[in-house]
Amino acid sequence: MKPAKFQYHRPETVAEAAALLHELGDEAKLIGGGQSLLPIMNMRLAEPSHLVDVAAVPELRTCTLTGTGAVYGGATTHMMIEDELVPDVTRGLMPQAATGIGYRAIRTRGTLGGSLAHSDSSAEWPTVLSALDATVHAVSTRGLRRIPVRDLLVGFFTTTLEEDELIASVEVPRLASRTRWGLYKQARKPGEFAESLAVVLRSEDSDQLWLGAARDVPVRLHAVESLIADRPTDTLTAADLLEAVEEDTGTEGHTRQLHAVAAHRALRASRREETHV
């Protein structure tokens, strides 16, 4: 199928894009790489009258290092992160996550801001950026609004963005040198959306475990964190995590097993010297 008829707009600045969204209201959809929106339009599940294409807005392709991390433009592509064409302040975590997204053609066009705005918890960026405590900078004609990613994502395909706001950039804190990370993605085949996606951040003070694809938003595994707090990782098995995973996610049976295995393998990955999966 082909999409319904629409009018195409190609703003040159963030301010121009925000003005278009304000003017056009709910008749408009923002498009960056189009890797999520265009298939939906082709199936006639979305029929916007206007498309506002921000892929070529220079401000949205920049990356600025700060004293605490980096600010990535909303149209930064997965490929730019994978190939480290932009600075990496996560000691390999974000590039590793980017390599698992779709296929090379998808990573070349798909964008960081687009993935967050799409809000699919089986995708990489919602879970990874929740774990990293990243913050979205949302812009509208009213000004700039800072939204923690953990507050941005409120449901499947649902965010706290207003209809006239766009994600101008994403602020990611620098990962501390002593923080070890682990990432594990379970999918039916490489490049597909995750059936389970586990991210682990371990430091001397605390552990954080986040899980994607278990609910409609990323889930922090508090019960699993409590379980592993006083136990050496190398003594744990996936079976040891089952009850805690069920408590955190509400899943049972095969799905619970799948998430327990993903969490366990992410924990094991965090023990590796180079912290790469």
Please give a handful of descriptors for the protein shown:
Uridine Diphospho-n-acetylenolpyruvylglucosamine Reductase, domain 3, Enolase-like, domain 1, 3 domains, four-stranded antiparallel beta sheet, 14 strands, globular
Topology:
Layout: E1 7-9, H1 14-24, E2 28-31, H2 37-42, E3 50-53, E4 63-65, E5 69-73, H3 78-82, H4 93-99, H5 104-109, H6 112-118, H7 124-131, E6 135-140, E7 143-148, H8 149-152, E8 153-155, E9 158-159, E10 166-173, E11 180-186, E12 196-202, E13 207-212, E14 219-220, H9 222-228, H10 242-249, H11 253-270
Parallel strand pairs: 1-3, 2-3
Antiparallel strand pairs: 4-5, 5-10, 6-7, 6-10, 8-9, 11-12, 12-13, 13-14
Order of helices and strands: EHEHEEEHHHHHEEHEEEEEEEHHH
Strand order of the largest sheet: 4-5-10-6-7
**Residue share in β-strands:** 15-25%
Main sheet overview: 5 strands, antiparallel
Account of the 3D structure:
The chain folds into 3 domains: 7-53, Uridine Diphospho-n-acetylenolpyruvylglucosamine Reductase, domain 2, CATH 3.30.43; 60-173, Uridine Diphospho-n-acetylenolpyruvylglucosamine Reductase, domain 3, CATH 3.30.465.10; 182-270, CO dehydrogenase flavoprotein, C-terminal domain (Enolase-like, domain 1). Helix 9 packs antiparallel against helix 10 and helix 10 crosses helix 11 (253-270). Strand 2, helix 2 (37-42) and strand 3 (50-53) form a beta-alpha-beta unit. The protein has helices at 14-24, 37-42, 78-82, 93-99, 104-109, 112-118, 124-131, 149-152, 222-228, 242-249, 253-270; strands at 7-9, 28-31, 50-53, 63-65, 69-73, 135-140, 143-148, 153-155, 158-159, 166-173, 180-186, 196-202, 207-212, 219-220. A 5-stranded antiparallel β-sheet has the order 4-5-10-6-7. It has a 4-stranded antiparallel β-sheet with strand order 11-12-13-14. It has a 3-stranded parallel β-sheet with strand order 1-3-2, covered by helices on one side. The model is unreliable at 273-277 (pLDDT under 50). Helix content is 31%, strand content 24%. The N and C termini lie far apart (39 Å).
